[in-house]
Design a protein that fits this description.
heterodimer, A: alpha/beta, two-stranded antiparallel ribbon, globular, B: 2 domains, three-stranded antiparallel β-sheet
Chain lengths: 305, 258
Amino acid sequence: MTRDGAAKVVATSVEDWAAPCGVLPPVAGAGYREAHAAAFAALGRPVAWVEIHAETYMVPGGPRLSRLLALRRCCPLSVHGVGLSLGGAEPLDQDHLRRLDHLCRLVEPALVSEHLAWSGVDGAYLNDLLPLPYTEETLALMADHVDQTQEALGRRILVENPSGYLALPGSLLAEPEFLAELARRTGCGLLVDVNNIHVSSRNLGIDAAAYVDCLPAAAIGEIHLAGHADLVLDDGEILAFDDHGSAVRAETWDLFRRLVARIGARPALVEWDNDLPTLDRLLAEVDRAQREMAAVVPRAPHVHP
Amino acid sequence: MSILDWQQGLGRYLRLGDPTGLGPELATPALWRRLQVYRHNVAGSLAATIAAAFPATRHAAGAASFAAWAESFVAAAPPTQPSLWTYGAGFPAHIEVQAATAGSPWLAALGRLEWASQEALFAAEAEPLSAASLAALATADPLRLRLAFHPAVQLLRSRWRLLDAWHAWRDDRPCPELWAEDQDGWAILVGRPRGEVAHRRLGPWQGGFVGALLAGASLGEAAATCPATAEVAGELTALLGAGLCVGYSIATTREPPP
C-alpha cells in the first residue's frame, strides 16, 4: 500500500492497519478537537485514526501538546494545515512552513494536508480559506507553493477543495480540472471534501456528481465529511454554509458513496467543529461513515465499534 | 490586475470594509452580499480567538462591550501569522482607555493577567529542579545562588485584586467591583506547576524579592530588601516546591548579607 492509502485495500480488519502509526488506514477517522481531549483520553475503544488542525498544536509546550503526544502513541494521525495560504500571491511564509515541519517531525503524521485557498496578504493573517480565480496564473502559483511545501517537509501533501460562496468571474478552469492539473504538475495528492463539493454546488450551481466523477482516483488520498448550515443573506437568498456544526447531510452521504464506489476505500474523516456533540455522538457518525463506505466497497476493512 | 493586486484589494475589503481596491468584476450587489460571508468569517473567527484568550476579561466587561472592543482590535491589529495562540498580546493595551472610561480601570490589568496565563499555558517544557539538585543547593552558599525559572513563570505587578475577577469567572459568579491595595508592590506570580496554569498573590516584599530573582539577582541581592530571613526561606521553599525553578548557578562574587 502507498503511504496515502491509495492502493488496493487488502486488509479485512482495522486492527491489521492499526499497528504502524506511519500509515493511515483506509477507514473512517475522527477530527480531534481540544474540547474532546479528556473524553478521548478516557475512551474505552480504539479509534482507527484522528486528524488535527496543525496550527492548534504549533505551541512550544504545555498540556495541549502533551495530550496530543500521548494520543499519538495510541493511533495514527493526520495533520491538516489551515494557515499556509498555498494560494497566496505573496511568497510562502517560510517561518510558518518551518513550524509545520517542526510539528510533523514531532508527531510523525501518516498524512499532511492543506487547502486550495489563500488566507493572508499585506502582513495580515485573515483566518479564513479565501477563494482564488482558477487561471493559469493561479495554477502556477499554487504549484510553486505546493512544490516548496513538499520539498520543505520531504513528503507528498494532499490539497483539499474549498467551500465556495462566490463564483469568481475571472476563472477559466473548473475546480476539479484545476485540482487534477495541480496534482499532475506537483505530484501532490488530493483531499476530497464531499461536503464542500455539495456546498459549492448549492451556492455556485455546479454539478456535484460530475465534479466527483471527474476527479483523478489515483491522486485521492483522503475524504472529508461534515455537516453544513443554511445561511440567509440580506436579500433573502439562502446559501449553504460550511460550518461543520451538525451531522453529515443526506446529499453529502450520496456524494461520498458515489465517490468511494468509483475509487475504493480511503481514509475518510468526519469533521465537527461547532456545536460540538459528545464524543460518543461524533464516533457514531464516524461509524456510519465506515458502514457507508463498506456498503459500496465490498473489501473495505470491517471496523468493530 | 495581477493576482497580488486582486488579493490586496479583497484583503482590505474583508478586513476594513474598504471596497475601493476590489476589481470591477466584484462590483455587483449580488457578489457583494456573498463577499459578506467571507467578511463575517474573518472578523468573527478572529474576535472568537480574542474571546477565547480573555474569558475572565469578557466575563467582567460583559459580552456586548467585549465584542465591540474585540471587533475594533481585530480591525486595528490583525494577526500577522496563522499560529493564533500568539494573537492578542496587544489587546489589554487596546482596551486600557475605553475600559477606564467605562468605569473599570482594572480591566486592562486583568487582560494582562490573562495574557500572561495564556503564555504560561503554552510555554516550553522544562524539568523542575530535582530532589538531588535541591540537596546540592542546600549545601551551596545560598546567598550566591541565582535561580533559573521555568519558561512559564511571569510576575505581574498590580495593586488591583485581579484574582477576585478571575475566580468570579472560573466559578461562574458575577464579577465583583475590584479594589486596589493601598501600597505599591503587590504582584501575581503566574506559573504552570504540575502542567496546569496557577496564580499566587504576592505582597510587596515578596513581589520585590521574586521580581529581583526573575531579573537575575542572586538570593543575597534579592533578599537585601526583605524583612526577615525566615520569610525569605519560606518564599524560596514555596517557589521550589511548586516546581517553578529549573536550574541555578553560583554568583562569582560573594554578596553582602541582607
